[in-house]
Amino acid sequence: MKKIIYTCLVAFLISCGSENKELSENNHAIEEEIVIENDMELENEDEIILSSERPSGSINEDVQMERSEGTVRSGKGAINTINLGNVEDINKYLIGNLEFHNDDKFAKIPSNLSSKSIYVRKETLNAFLEMAKQAEKDGIKLTVISGARNFNHQKSIWERKWNSSNIKDPVARAKDILRYSSMPMTSRHHWGTDIDINSLQNSYFESGKGLKEYKWLVENGPKYGFCQVYTDKKEKNRKGYEMEKWHWSYMPLASQLLSQYKKELSYDQISGFEGSEVAKDLDVINVYVGGIADCN
Q1: Of 173, 201, 209, 265, whose CB count within 10 A is highest?
Q2: What CA–CA distance (Å, rounded) separates 193 from 295?
Q3: What is the pLDDT of residues 149-183, one digit of tens each?
Q4: Cβ atoms within 10 Å of 94's Cβ, excluding its own
Q5: What is the DSSP letter of 86?
Q6: β partners of residue 219
Q7: H/E segment holding residue 228
Q8: How many CB atoms lie within 10 A of CB 64?
Q9: CA atoms of 39 and 25, how far apart (whole Å)
Q10: d(CA 20, CA 22)
Q11: Is 230 exposed, middle or buried (0-12, 13-18, 19+ CB in 10 A)?
Q12: pLDDT tens-digit profile of 228-262?
């Protein structure tokens, strides 16, 4: 029943999309949110079982976590250079070839700060917990609605959009999807450094409670290492994805991973999903993976 309601809602919004550009942009965000929610059904069995293991407690309670050697003690600090092992290990990690619940570099976000079972890098979580604690003191509630996604998860999002598109030209079809969704193997969500907060619609953050939350994030996010990497392209002269006010990246770690990605990945390695053949034509590594705001 839930899927039917979602599907009807998306169909209605899409039918009205040609009348209003802003509504069209919201359709992409709504579709992404529905796909992310439904993708829990497509995760492997272990992942689904883990979704019921939801810890409870207030942000103010101490959250004890294993801290990897050489990582930050808080979101405000610097982070040492990462040693991910050999080139093969680096490439697997950067393209999302991981099972997060079996990887000791990742941890699950507490249920009182997430919308479902969500994993991120431990460094990202440490910083987010500090930021959320301060936000709560300031009357702001931060909830992570999406975090780390492996290759299969991102593939399911991409291919649903690819197969439902009416655009026949493969390059144009991919470019349309790339307004708000990444190709598998090119998503920052593979790294566990990027989180989506509170909503997947820009309009939510333009008034009322959402605007208050966004202003708080803009002012305070950098104090904890977080940056809105997909800003207004008109103002920042940025390439790639459209503006996403919900998408925040833990830069002390993500900046190093981006450098590794540009160094190690090539277009020959981007494969295994529908539409992968146009990745080079669209120069996705430079335009989309590298198309972020200057957060330094």
Answers
A1: 201
A2: 14
A3: 999 999 999 999 999 999 999 999 999 999 999 99
A4: 24
A5: S
A6: none
A7: strand 226-228
A8: 6
A9: 21
A10: 6
A11: buried
A12: 999 999 887 899 999 999 999 999 999 999 999 99
Backbone Cα Rg of the chain? 18
Q: 238 is written with which tokens?
A: 């940025």
Contact between residue 198 and residue 150 where contact means Cβ atoms under 8 Å apart: no
Question: Rounded to an integer, what distance in angstroms lies between the CA atom of residue 131 and that of residue 280?
Answer: 38
Contacts of residue 259, Cβ cutoff 8 Å, sequence gap at least 6: none
CA separation for the pair 112, 100 (Å, rounded): 20
Residue carrying the six token digits 């503006």: 243
b/e map 173-186, b = 16+ CB within 10 Å: bbbbbbebbbbbbb
Backbone angles phi, psi at 146, to 5 degrees: -160, 145
Given 3-state DSSP classes, what are the helix, strand and coil percentages for the chain, each rounded to the nearest 5?
50, 5, 40
The pair of three-digit structure tokens given for residue 212, joined into one six-digit string: 């208050």
pLDDT for 285 beyond 70: yes
Both structure tokens of 248: 């925040």
Structure tokens that stand for 43 in this block: 């995760």
- The angle subtended at Cα 295 by Cα 115 and Cα 121, nearest 5°, is 40
The answer to whether residues 90 and 84 touch, using CB atoms and an 8 Å cutoff, is yes
Q: How many helices (H) and strands (E) does the chain have?
A: 11, 6
Task: Give how far Cα 137 sits from Cα of 111, 131, 219, Å.
Answer: 19, 10, 15
Confidence (pTM): 0.78
Which uninterrupted H or E stretch holds 136?
helix 122-137
